Amino acid sequence: MKVNITGGELDTREIGEYIKYGQQKYKGRQIRQLDITVDGEFVDLKFYFKDTDFQRAYRSADYLVNNMEKLNDAKQTEFADKVRHSSQEI
Predict the structure, then answer these.
(1) pTM
(2) Per-residue pLDDT reduced to its tens digit, 18-31
(3) Whole-angstrom Cα distance, residue 51 to residue 32?
(4) Which residues, in sequence order, are CB contacts of 7 under 8 Å at separation 6+?
(5) How far apart are CA 28 and CA 5, in angstroms?
(6) How far is CA 52 from CA 3, 11, 27, 29, 35, in A?
């Protein structure tokens, strides 16, 4: 992963914590780059991700996901109860 730091300096432990934060926040996505902008006691983080190959996309109640496990139990149940139409019926 490429890490760019502007506006100051950070030690490797702190950079590692920001990477860990991004990995926990964006589970299931691969981070390819992290830009860290230091502004005094504050930092701005910008994560860039590797492209995701969608094998299948699901649309359920205005959510577009590539994996149904990303939805909560209620949305998974709602999706399971929907009537599916084959592409040949169109």
Answers:
(1) 0.57
(2) 999 999 999 888 99
(3) 9
(4) 37, 38, 39
(5) 25
(6) 20, 31, 13, 8, 20
